[in-house]
Amino acid sequence: MNYKLIISIARSLLLARWKQTLVAAIGVTFSITMFITLLSFMTGLNDLLDGLILNRSPHVRLYNEIKPNKIQPINFSKDYINYHNFIHSIKSTNSREEIYNNGSIMEALKNDNRVLGFAPKLTAQVFFNEGSININGLINGVDIIAESELFFFNDYLISGKELDLKNVSNSIVLGKGLAEKLLANVGDVIQITTSQGEIFPLKVVGLFQSGLQEIDKLQSYASIGTTQKILGKSKNHITDIQIKLKDITQAPAIAKEYAQLFQTDAEDIQTASSQFETGSSVRTIISYSVGITLLVVAGFGIYNILNMMIYEKMDSIAILKATGFSGKDVNMIFLVIALSIGFFGGFGGLFFGFILSSVIDQIPFNTAALPTITTYPINYNPVFYIIGSFFSLVTTYLAGWFPARKASKVDPVIIIRGK
Amino acid sequence: MSEIILEAQHISKSFHDPVTIKVLNDISFTINKGEFVSITGKSGCGKSTLLYILSTMDTDYEGDLLIDKQSMKNKKEADLARLRNEKIGFVFQFHYLLNEFSVLQNVMLPGLKLNKYSEQEVEHRAMEHLKTLDIQKLYSKKANQLSGGEKQRVAIARALINDPYIIMGDEPTGNLDKKNSEIVFEIFKQLCDEHNQTLMIVTHDQSFSKKTNRIIEMEDGKIISQ
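^ inputs. structure came back:
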């Protein structure tokens, strides 16, 4: 088939009705623009909201739950081995909160290539002293370098430097809410009382704002060594190991494996924050369906315009057929028309979609909950652009298919006789 | 003496809507190379219907049609289209030029479709034909800017572009005034005499048909004289 000729005929037909063509192409452009913008914006927001929780959550968390021993003394008794024993008021054993042998666990994690990284952690319940008032609080002992790398600690730090936590001894980073209560600022020294009753001075080296007020009012960060000192524990006292995986979807399986391998409790992110994933997947589905609806509407527009064009061009189709163009050629001509509307309209849509998302990206968006965000979030994922261009071609192809088939079936005899 | 270009063998056709009417009844004839044939008859005698069958555009008939000794029965639509492109040139009553294209492009289209010559060559040949028909000055105009007589000459140039075996005309002068009709007839005559071009023209214009080499007269779906 002579594609060059078919394309040039399609081009002439399109340009002869350039206003109609433009309207059809604008329809596609508009829907692709909205599709791109909507998805970029929605996904940007999704990422932001998920990031609030998911970024800070480990994919797998290793810890020791305080719980009663599964095997109680009565189970050892040979006399009652075949009985079902009811025991009331079991108390948890005085088991250690710390993870046993955590040095070698961390060594094993380092060598596991499914693991992106891990951060050890321990927590201490303390009272912050504000004059005669004691404020209940929590100190997280963290490895600040791992924490910044894996859980984006820097994003939430509103003043101070995170490395000071490591470099300055007995230092602390306070939650913004907590700092306001304590009237403390960077450089100040605050007093805490440990659960054992000891008073301990700590130097404030930074403030953080996580976006979740509950956390900001309660929590603070110190280095692992400082926290161990506060608790009066030894250098290998670690209560949590937070693991980030390369592939988040593997978390449940790996959590199970680690629970068995390391003899600890292990919690995966899917179990811990399932509601967030549901929320974001529903939002994504909504944006895709709105985007695709827009495209389908544009598709009907193209269908209409091509149908009209075919009625207008009946004579031309008849003469093309009489002079030797087959039904297939005519079909191709109209498909080329539809696809070029889709191609140019879609291309324009990608361009304008990018422009519009960039404009939204510049609109100020200040919220106390998110210190690092100053404008509306936009996700410039190239996948949206690929899907957008793909769908613009598919819908215009389908919209052109029926009219093109109709055109290919035009019987030239009827048209020529009909005059 | 000369070779047969087109042969109709017992062609019959009926319309079935709303009642069955036989429009063509056992039509048989042959056309030799270089003949200038006119098919005449009163309105409704079936001459146009016959032309559409002979042109391969209408495939719903009984009997057989041979063009260049090949049977047209049971050929696929795409093959018929190719055959029309290559071997048949058309001139219609209503000039049927594509208004989106210039005169030159209109003439070139079937040639480009045939894809036998390069684009430059097709263009050159199209210009030659326009020159022969004395309308080369109009080559860059859009088809809808021409007068009726000029359009018909462009249509003839288009019919000639692929050196067809036969040129078929459906009332080519039916929509033209006397002067332009004469010009068109002279062109046909010249093509026949100088280039040995075979022509088959359907017309009810007696003054036109009288001047042709051979007249096939039809009445009520039958040939009454040839």
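The mean pLDDT of chain A is 84. Chain A touches chain B through 27 residues (CB under 8 Å).
thumbs up if we can close this ticket
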